[in-house]
Amino acid sequence: MVEAAPFRERFETRALLATLVVVVALLSMLPLARLAFEAIAPGGVPSLDATSRVLGDATTWSAAGHSVATAVGGTLLATVLGSIVALLVALTDVRARNAYVFCFVLPLMLAPQVVALAWLQMFGPSSTLLKLVGLAPPPGTRNPLYSPQGIVLLLGVQYAPLVFLTLRAGLRTLPRELIEAALASGARPVRVVRTIVLPLMTPPLVAGVALAFVSCLGNFGIPAFLGIPANYLVLPTLIYQRMAGLGPSVLSDVAVLSMLVGTIAVAGIVVQDAMLRRRDFRITSTSLSARPFELGRWRLPVEIALWSVSAVMLALPLTALVLTSLVPAVGVALSSASATLDNYRFVLLEHDGARRAFRNSFGLSATAAWTIVFIAVPLAYFVVWRRSRLVRVVNLVAELPYALPGVVLAIAAILLFLKPLPLVGVTLYNTVWILLFCYLARFLVLGLRPVVSGYYQLDRTLEEAAQVAGARLLRRIRTIILPLVAPAAAAGALLIFLTAFNELTLSALLWSSGAETLGVVLFSFQQGGDANYAAALASLTVVLTIALMLSTLFVASRLPPGVLPWRD
Amino acid sequence: MNATYRFTRALLAGCVLALALAGAAAAQAPKGKLVLYTSQPERDAAQTVAAYKRVNPAVEVEVFRSGTTEVMAKLAAEFAAGQPKPDVLLLADAATMESLKKDGRLMAHPQAKVAGLDPGTYDADRTYFGSKLITTGIAVNTSAKSRPTSWADLAKPEYKGQIAMPSPLYSGAAAIMLGTMTARNDLGWPFFEKLKAADAVAVRGNGAVLTAVANGEKTYGVLVDFMAFNAKAKGSPIDFIMPAEGLPAVTEPVAILKTTQNADAAKAFVDFILSDEGQKLAASMGYIPANPSAGMPAWMPAGMKIKLMPTNIAQVVDNNSANLKRFAQIFGN
Fold first, then answer.
1. Do residues A371 and A297 both lie within one domain?
2. Which candidate, A337, A406, B49, B232, has a CA 20 to 30 Å from the CA of A435?
3. Which residue of A345, A513, A524, A537 is the best one to mutate when testing the B interface, meaning the one whose CB has the most B CBs within 10 A?
4. Do A93 and A7 belong together in one domain?
5. Contact B89, B254 (CB under 8 A)
């Protein structure tokens, strides 16, 4: 370490760090602190009124129970599905692995409300798809997805890729010797998996489970589409209904509900931590990764099974979605006479709100992506090469808005920005800027992680040479580090763009006229009875998402491994 | 002075006068931005705005669309923040407008042309004006084996588990329906309790009822007329029944907020809604217009008489929150 740095260098470093700390504190800490403050001191007056009122209400606990039930169920399904697929893809010699990973991870990148809408169109007495094959149930049958089981199923489908990704990353580090020793001792492959692979993979598996649990808990789109029509509320939809139906008079109550959701999420993370502390899971060898198991005559059946799972999870619902978008009205059967592109025409050309939503979603997502990358590159410098306790705390704080459910951040932002800002007298509430603020806060960590892994690939001597030659910090970041870390930063920007483009949780609570996003317009169409317009809009966003994901495959080879989730 | 000079002077004076008049007219043509909060369905709101813009091309319109309750909640949030955004409101029912008027939030528009309109559809102080007549009746999927002929019929046990209705906690039209029906002796609260016993589901808004009935998930629904007829015209397997006791109706009034930033455009919007063109547009969208001389929607045969249920608006407004609470107790949140 170059300790005897001249004064200006130290000053610049400290100034940059201070700026970054302030930015992260403003984005992450301030809203959450304001939320906690509102829960214990509603309206500025310290009192436990709001807390006792909310905690004493039976609706709160029924919604909390539903939340935990669907989160646990969804996590279980996601874990089983994701780990089986991860083991098969990472440890065996199935073919077309890249294509399969792309298809399996796709539901994760799609908006939850699009997934919900697509699956809804697959069932029900007037499902266009079922009518086409003559399997439509008789009228009067309830769509089976409008139930807690439906919510659990879709949560599992949406977040199985999360468990898959974390487990697969862990499986890459599995050492060859342990497995070969077991095989040489006569153990069958299944036994090897059971007694060696799975115990060693406990950390990534538990991490994946915790991630899936928190995501299921905070998911809004799926319970909104499937639960609200069945009057089955979970905490995020309860918060949304209270806010939408009663306005800011219930802000204190809703703040308490948000704290409750956050507490349950944190409890999940703490349990994960506790589980990992009890044993030592370190892998001591750093040899090559395991050679794939050969499946022999099982290979084809396994491949067929894998692709069938993907077909059910992805292809069928998307087909149902597109078919519904081609029908002029709800309940009409699809035929060559009734097929029409009217819905697309309305959504793209006639409906002002949808056109504005495309512009807003694009603009907000792109702005958020580049701003976050602009913050993430210098921040990652400190996280990777200038680690101190302050930086560790900042890193942790930056994770909070993404780890906690989105409704928590949305309510916190409303509390923060409802009244005009102190010095400038401008109100951000009800404008597009409050949405941008929330995007920046929530997706910061999505940009930080790829950039950090990009830094790990760099050779620090380049930077040190520049420092010895007299270049100060900002110049070194700008001229040396940025070009080298650019691919990883761009990948992070794309990830942020895709996630922000498809999100609904934040915009459902924060949108205003002129600032609608695609998720909101979709929700509005569905709630207004225009299921066909909703299907057309959803199909368009799916095509866009897939196109963007495919476009990255051209540059995928230059990126550090694991940055793009859909690439092996 | 010679004749040429006098002629030139007159010509110049005429030009200046013409320019002044043109300038005044141009200055009076509405321009700028107009923000509309409405509970109309998306497509109808889009069509209304497009037609208004054809008459007033210099105005840029922004629309916020949601169920009446959600629009009111958003409005309450903006009032609390001291920055209400909308200039005009086009909401389902007069009861909502009455409560806004009581809070002093509405701007009167005395010059509105109310000739040809029934005095019961607009406010005596000219703060809100009914734009159309939307009735609520019984929608039925065409595959249904039997059809109810009256509201009391709907609560019969043979329709158990097959009924969807819009929740008054979300829809303004449903709130009026609740207030109107509970005030009647032949229906009252026992009717809703019987509906609950028949496992009727209260869903979020008329749109959800339309989806459920047209999809076949529920065979019967309580639904507004234009939604059923418009869907039927596009081929949905749905029919509309007018029950024997009569149909509760709302007038979908339009009103201007006192805090409007663009009073000219707002007044022009009200004028457009009440004008011949606006009323004909409503008829073409499948609504019964407030001004009968504008013609009837396509689904209504000539000479058809609709039996309306009389509504005491003042009574509905007074009992609204108590009614909603009781409904929530019966049907859940």
1. no
2. B49
3. A513
4. no
5. yes
For B34, the enclosing helix (H) or strand (E) is strand B32-38
Give residue A82's pLDDT.
93
From the CA of B220, how many Å to the nearest CA of chain A? 9
pLDDT for position A562: 66
Q: Do residues A61 and A143 share a domain? A: yes
Q: Beta B132-141 vs B220-224: how paired, if at all?
A: antiparallel
CATH architecture of B134-249+307-328: 3-Layer(aba) Sandwich (3.40)
Query: Which residues in chain B are contacts of A525 at CB distance < 8 A?
Result: 42
CATH of the domain at A371: 1.10.3720.10
User: CA-based Rg of chain B, rounded to a whole angstrom?
Assistant: 23
Best mean pLDDT range from A247-251, A274-278, A290-294, A545-549: A545-549
More confident residue, B234 or A352: B234
**What does the pLDDT look like over A56-71, one tens digit per residue?**
888 899 999 999 999 9
Q: Is residue A78 part of a domain?
A: yes
Superfamily of domain B31-131+251-294: Periplasmic binding protein-like II (3.40.190.10)
Contact B235 A124 (CB under 8 A): no
A interface test, pick of B33, B40, B42 with most A CB neighbours within 10 Å: B42
Q: Look at residue A427 and give its three-state secondary structure.
A: coil
Closest-CA residue of chain B to A248: B77
Q: Is B158 on the interface with A (CB under 8 A)?
A: no
Tell me if B216 and A229 make a contact (CB, 8 A cut-off): no
Q: What ipTM was assigned to the predicted interfaces of this complex? A: 0.74
A172 and A319 fall within a common domain: yes
Give the one of A139, A233, A429 whose C-beta lies nearest to B141's C-beta: A139
**Is residue A255 situated within a structural domain?**
yes
Number of structural domains in chain A: 2
Contact residues, chain B, for A346 at CB < 8 Å: 43
Q: What is the pLDDT of residue A78?
A: 95
Return the ∠ at Cα A138 (arms to A135 and A140), rounded to 5°: 140
**Residues in contact with A536: Cβ distance below 8 Å, sequence separation at least 6, in sequence order:** A325, A343, A344, A346, A347
In tens, the pLDDT along B138-189 reads 999 998 888 999 998 888 888 888 899 998 888 888 989 999 999 888 888 9
As annotated, the residues of chain B forming the CATH 3.40.190.10 domain(s) are 31-131+251-294, 134-249+307-328
Q: Give the percent of chain A with pLDDT over 70.
A: 94
pTM over 0.95: no
Nearest by CB to B215, from A244, A330, A419: name it: A330
Gap between the terminal Cα atoms of chain B: 87
Distance CA B315, CA B309 (A): 14
pLDDT of residue B144: 87
- Domain membership flag for residue A415: yes
Q: Residue A124 gets which letter from DSSP?
A: S
Residue B210 in this model has a pLDDT that exceeds 80? yes
Indicate whether A245 and A165 sit together in one domain. yes
Name the least confident of A61-70, A145-154, A284-293, A421-430.
Answer: A284-293
Residues of A in contact with B208 (CB under 8 A): 229, 527, 529
Tens of pLDDT, residues B79-115: 876 778 899 999 988 888 988 998 899 999 999 888 8
Q: For residue range A497-533, list pLDDT tens digits in order.
A: 988 998 888 888 888 767 889 998 888 888 777 888 9
**Across chain A, what does the average pLDDT equal?**
85
Chain A interface disruption, residue of B52, B211, B223, B232, most A CBs within 10 A: B211
Residues forming beta bridges with residue B34, ordered by sequence position:
B61
Q: Give the closest of A248, A331, A350 to B215, CB-based.
A: A331
Element (H, E) at B250: strand B249-250
Between A139, A241, A527, which is nearest B207 by CB?
A527
Q: Are residues A308 and A440 in the same domain?
A: no
